[in-house]
Design a protein that fits this description.
The protein is of the alpha+beta class and 84 residues long. It is built from one helix and four strands, in the order αββββ. It is elongated, with a radius of gyration of 19 Å.
Length: 84
């Protein structure tokens, strides 16, 4: 049985949509809300949310609304124990 190109494209788009939704549903280990992020490499100096999973920064955005195991809302400066 031969599958037409149109059907192949439709199957591909369906699988892509499923993979995208699965990736969005993953939770973070730590979500830091309203932190003052300074990143000279990307010319960033703003109040942002930072999401961490497996010890790595996964996302930095103005607002992140995904689940996290631990949440921390920043008020003022970041504790010295968080800096390298």
């Amino acid at each position: 049985m031969k599958i037409s190109t149109g059907i192949k494209k439709l199957i591909f788009l369906g699988l892509l949509a499923i993979c995208t939704l699965m990736g969005q549903s993953q939770s973070y280990d730590l979500l830091i809300k309203n932190g003052h992020v300074i990143d000279p490499k990307n010319n960033l100096d703003a109040i942002m949310d930072v999401a961490v999973r497996d010890g790595k920064i996964i996302e930095v955005a103005k607002s992140i609304n995904k689940p996290a195991t631990k949440n921390h809302r920043c008020h003022g400066s970041i504790p010295d124990s968080w800096t390298d």
